[in-house]
Design brief:
single chain, 255 residues, alpha+beta, Sulfite Oxidase, Chain A, domain 2, five-stranded antiparallel sheet, 12 strands, elongated
């Protein structure tokens, strides 16, 4: 049985509406593609600022202001039982670790002010109250592991060595002995209760590829801020140089 002729006008109108909507959708899609490509070309024509294209760096700086503004030192990163820590800890880079190191001659140089540097042995640091932490170490490359670390809380270290004036400054800077790797840390994150000057991994001395004899563990940051093999510590009200920020990454690097 054939359809009645009365349905044909309605079907024709319906088809015309569909064609019109499809045409408009393609026009909108094309316009968005043109705007997106033009924006992409414009961004890539902009000058560099601190290792990144200027619009990207402005966006990263804005994100830093937002995240630092809501940072809460009382908010702790989730901790896990030791049994959940991995035995084979992933190595996230060897920058600053190329040279050999001797524990007997190694010193942590703490620059309190120009011409005033405190030099400490690993044993000096081990005399302070120890803290262990098992947390989910996050790398900016996208992987994470539950890992077990031990050392002295940085806040405890600074209190013990009467670095009260320095703790009121805006930033902490850390540099490897060979100056091959360096980071800048905002002071609130540095003084977070879970931030450690770390000398143990899985209950044993740090392996060379994990920063022996002393590294930073700062759970509120991504791995690029966990500097291995600390040589020098200093304090500043201006942002210290930062290895990965100079290469276009986020300076704050919090999560």
């Amino acid at each position: 049985m054939s359809r009645s002729s009365s349905s044909l006008p309605e079907e024709s109108i319906s088809n015309k509406g569909f064609v019109a909507k499809t045409f408009i959708a393609f026009l909108v899609f094309g316009a968005l593609m043109i705007v997106g490509w033009s924006t992409f070309k414009w961004i890539n024509m902009q000058p560099q600022e601190a290792g990144a294209l200027k619009p990207l760096r402005k966006t990263l700086d804005f994100n830093e202001k937002v995240f630092s503004g809501i940072f809460n030192a009382n908010h702790l990163v989730k901790e896990y039982p030791v049994s959940q820590a991995v035995k084979r800890v992933r190595v996230n880079g060897m920058d600053g670790l190329r040279d050999s190191v001797n524990e007997a001659s190694w010193r942590l140089k703490v620059v309190r002010a120009a011409g005033d540097t405190l030099q400490l042995t690993l044993n000096d640091i081990k005399q302070l109250p120890k803290k262990d932490i098992v947390f989910d170490f996050k790398c900016i490359e996208g992987w994470d592991q539950v890992t077990h670390w031990g050392g002295v809380p940085l806040k405890t270290f600074m209190e013990h060595y009467h670095l009260d004036k320095q703790s009121k400054m805006n930033y902490l800077g850390l540099v490897t002995p060979d100056k091959g790797y360096y980071v800048g840390i905002d002071m609130p994150s540095a003084l977070h209760p879970q931030t450690l000057l770390c000398y143990e991994m899985n209950g044993k001395p740090l392996p060379v590829n994990q920063g022996f004899p002393l590294r930073l563990i700062i759970p509120v940051k991504y791995g690029i801020k966990h500097l291995k093999r600390i040589g020098t510590m200093f304090f500043s009200n201006n942002k210290p140089a930062d290895y990965w920020a100079e290469r276009g990454y986020d300076y704050y690097a919090g999560h």
